[in-house]
# Entry
Amino acid sequence: MAGKVILLAMRTALAWTFLHAGALKIWDFARAQPATPDFVVAIQQYHLLPSPDLTVLLAVYLPWVEIFGALGLFVRRVQLGAASTLAVLTTIFLGALASAWARGLRIECGCFGRDETSTDFPALLLRDGCILAAALVLFFIDGRKVPGQERAMFADSGRFTLP
# Structure
């Protein structure tokens, strides 16, 4: 029973983190205006994408992926996919932060909307590492809930076969 409560708390905290982050990238509640232009600037500061068009696409769609991934953590049929999506996103975020830190960039993270201070890379990497750990725990727990027949479809030498 205690394990289920802990998993529910972890699922809720992870979902809230991504709902909150996604919402703040879409709408700046403090200034009552869209936050997408600020998020475009935050993404451009990383100097990772080759095209401004890709930056705009990422700024528009990434927050919605975060929001739907967070909501998916509570829908039994898509929990595994939601947890894996959030784990992959967090891994990408960790890589982007580590890259910016290694290159000595002085940037605003953009993780939770508009930040007024410069980025504290060790703290952000620790935070994202904890988020990744939570997403992976949920991924492996939810992966164990997959019925045996569905799991058997992938059992033989990694090839997909229909039952």
Notes: DSSP finds six helices and two strands in the chain. The two ends are 35 Å apart (CA to CA). The longest strand covers residues 27-28. Residues 90 and 130 are 10 Å apart (CA to CA).
